[in-house]
Specification:
The complex is a heterodimer of chains A (364) and B (325). By secondary structure, chain A is mostly helical. Chain A has one domain. Chain A is 76% helix and 0% strand. In chain A, helix 13 runs antiparallel to helix 16. The longest helix of chain A has 35 residues. Chain A is globular and about 70 Å long. The relative contact order of chain A is 0.11. Chain B has 2 domains: 224 residues, Rossmann fold, CATH 3.40.50.300; 72 residues, Alpha-Beta Plaits (2-Layer Sandwich). In chain B, 40% of the residues lie in helices and 29% in strands. Chain B contains 11 helices and 14 strands. In chain B, the strands form 3 sheets. Chain B has a 6-stranded mixed beta sheet with strand order 6-7-8-3-9-10, with helices on both faces. Chain B has a 4-stranded antiparallel beta sheet with strand order 2-1-4-5, covered by helices on one side. The longest helix of chain B has 20 residues. Classes of the chains: A mainly alpha (364), B alpha/beta (325). At the A-B interface, helix 3, helix 5 and helix 11 of A face helix 2, strand 6, helix 3 and helix 4 of B.
């Protein structure tokens, strides 16, 4: 119930912020300074419901995130980037549709993967900026509480220790989910207004699953940064470490894989078997990177004509009908990527959970 | 008397180092107990074990009849803890910080709002309730900490170095506040400190804690007799007009005749320490004057915690030197 409440509230950001402000401070002050009738009527409105400590912390986390400049800036960057990609997508929409395209019936999805005039697509922007958002929400989750000296105080309240880290994770994930769902829906609705054609139910489902994959992907970076925030005492160290990991994966890992590919490339007269094995080896190396998993998954989801993410022999292609895959088949194709992403997210969280539970609580 | 805190053979070991060494201690309901010791004596570790925030290596901790290691949440419901150098969320006001604590303790908004404002007024922060905590002074933060501890209606409050870094006037106010509030609500207070004279003022009982061991406990007077001298009264006398060895002996002889005098030490030229079993100041004065010496100064020495403390550390340092040589 509370979950739904919070999401609904966040869908109307201004309303929520006002409500949060009232919730946290505004209402109380009159009753302190002016103990008159006005205050008592306000006090009567307060709920008598006993809150669950877990949701109390989640509530605080979400409010903290929303009030923080960090999130405002990141969201502003992401929104501007997405607006840019939407505009280019709409401008080049005519070019991306051709009469005999097998994906003809899925042209709404093109909006998400269309690029042009030097601006990358919505998907590329998210795969680049999403990690930054995840890192921004999590890198000081635990260690800032330690340096502020609030950890010992909060943990000496009657809560279980894991409730705290679970709530930190839930709060961050909630903000991410609401943000991306909202962003995708806004993106879609502007698309509908401009193109004039609504998406088919299958397209809508594909977009929803795409949003889910995005949340998992950003959730991975959130958890990685929470893990580092448990491990490192200084918020700056953990931020730098997560950003280093992110940079390594986005920039250097590709270069390293390239080196390996060049070094292990089979000769000119290698058998097709060998070449396929080599190809698969390199693709698998690339798939260690979460962003590769993400782009594999989203490409398949948003371009139904993609039938394989690896090499196909001509025997396999013979006799295929050039039609898009149904949703079930596309999902089957990216199932491994999807589970890989979720696994990475969960294992990061498990590590963070473990080291947090074993850690000694000291004041500062 | 009901025992609120009961530690039995409590030990906490970090590798080779024993932070708390076989500690047994019990604190009765309504007591204000001072845990005294230098930094690193294991006071904070003991407190953390009482709250179930750290697991003991061996031994047991019972708080309000509950095992703190196995039922930490139930214990934390009854015990308010003010950590050393407490931190608050700077971007929130004092009121909001307290509200968060109240909610974590499962209080409904209606209850929490009323209680929070009441407590803020009680600790004298009423006018500053809506100010952000980042603008609070050190003393105000500490008072907010006290309110934060009381929000959950505890049976026991544990304060770790509550007076650290506050000016003398603030310390006095804070300690008075602690005593007043604890009497008002019938609380048991455990308070750790290395500032002896502060604790001395308000504690009904103190325990001296050094390198993981409780070396003595009791009220200040019994501690002084345990640790400092064999004699309950010590009188310091300064005499003039003694030139010869004979005079000294004569003086000692005279003093020995006074009933109750147990020991006489000549510390320096004309400085005497006389240990007695009862207060014999006037008789000693008479004896000195009768012996022909000039009495220039006579005072009854009483020992405060400072002396006890210093005395103890004199012993340990000499002990350590002895060991290392």
């Amino acid at each position: 119930m509370i979950f739904i409440n919070v999401t609904l509230k966040i869908l109307h950001p201004m309303k929520f912020i006002n409500q949060a402000k009232m919730y946290m401070s505004g209402m109380s002050i009159p009753s302190l300074t002016l103990p008159n009738t006005k205050a008592t009527t306000k006090a009567e409105k307060l709920s008598t419901k006993v809150p669950h400590p877990f949701w109390v912390i989640v509530n605080k986390e979400v409010v903290d995130h929303i009030r923080s400049w960090r999130l405002v800036i990141l969201v502003a960057i992401i929104t501007i980037a997405c607006a840019g990609s939407l505009i280019t997508g709409l401008m080049h929409f005519k070019d991306s549709i051709s009469a005999n395209d097998p994906e003809g019936s899925f042209f709404f999805l093109k909006l998400f993967s269309a690029s042009g005039s030097g601006l990358p697509s919505f998907v590329v922007f998210i795969s680049f900026l999403g990690p930054l958002l995840g890192i921004g929400l999590g890198f000081d989750a635990i260690n800032s509480e330690q340096t502020r000296g609030t950890m010992a105080r909060v943990l000496s309240q009657p809560i279980y220790r894991d409730q705290w880290i679970n709530a930190k994770f839930t709060g961050g994930l909630l903000v991410i989910s609401v943000l991306f769902t909202g962003l995708t829906l806004i993106f879609m609705s502007i698309g509908i207004l401009k193109i004039g054609i609504p998406p088919t139910p299958e397209e809508f489902l594909r977009i929803l699953i795409f949003t889910f994959v995005t949340i998992c992907y950003v959730g991975f970076w959130l958890n990685l940064s929470i893990l580092f925030s448990v491990k490192f005492k200084q918020a700056a160290t953990s931020a730098l470490c997560t950003i280093a990991v992110w940079l390594f994966f986005t920039v250097f890992y590709g270069i390293i894989v390239n080196f390996i590919a060049n070094a292990t490339a089979p000769g000119q007269f290698a058998s097709p078997d060998q070449i396929i094995r080599y190809q698969q080896f390199i693709t698998n190396l690339m798939r260690i990177v979460p962003s590769q998993l993400y782009s594999d998954a989203t490409t398949t989801l948003l371009m139904p004509s993609v039938r394989s993410l690896g090499p196909l022999t001509s025997e396999q292609v013979v006799g295929t009908v050039p039609s898009p895959l149904p949703l079930g088949q596309s999902l089957l194709l990216v199932w491994a990527q999807l589970t890989g992403l979720i696994l990475a997210t969960v294992s990061c969280f498990a590590l963070a959970y473990y080291s947090f539970m074993r850690r000694e609580v000291r004041s500062r | 008397m009901e025992q609120v805190i009961e530690l039995v053979n409590l030990t906490k070991q970090y590798g080779e180092f024993k932070a708390v060494d076989n500690l047994s201690l019990s604190i009765q309901k309504g007591e204000v107990f001072g845990l005294l010791g230098p930094n690193g004596a294991g006071k904070s570790t003991t407190i953390l074990m009482m709250l179930g925030l750290t697991e003991p290596s061996s031994g047991s901790v019972k708080v309000c009849g509950l095992d703190a290691t196995k039922q930490p949440v139930e214990v934390k419901r009854k015990v308010g803890y003010l950590p050393e150098d407490v931190g608050f969320y700077d971007e929130l006001s004092g009121f909001e910080n307290l509200l968060f604590t109240a909610r974590l303790n499962g209080q409904s908004d209606k209850l929490a709002y009323g209680k929070t404002s009441e407590l803020l007024n009680k600790v004298g922060l009423g006018p500053h309730a809506e100010k952000k905590v980042s603008k609070y002074s050190r003393g105000m933060r500490q008072r907010l900490g006290l309110a934060d501890v009381l929000v959950k209606d505890p049976e026991v409050i544990i304060l770790d170095e509550p007076t650290l870094g506050i000016d003398p006037k603030g310390v006095k106010e804070l300690l008075e506040l602690i005593v007043r509030l604890s009497k008002e609500k019938g609380l048991t207070v455990l308070l750790s400190s290395h500032h002896l004279h502060q604790v001395q003022q308000i504690c009904t009982r103190v325990g001296l804690f050094v390198s993981g061991k409780l070396i003595a406990s009791g009220d200040v007077e019994s501690l002084s007799s345990q640790l400092i001298s064999k004699h309950p009264f010590l009188i310091e006398a300064r005499v003039g007009g003694i030139q010869e060895e004979v005079d000294n002996d004569k003086l000692k002889e005279k003093l020995n005749l006074v009933p109750g005098v147990k020991e006489i030490n000549l510390l320096a030229e004309g400085l005497l320490h006389i240990g007695c079993s009862m207060d014999r100041t006037s008789e000693i004065a008479q004896a000195i004057v009768a012996s022909g010496a000039q009495l220039t100064h006579l005072s009854k020495k009483t020992y405060g915690l400072d002396d006890i403390y210093q005395r103890y550390f004199e012993n340990t340092t000499s002990h350590e030197v002895h060991q290392s040589s």
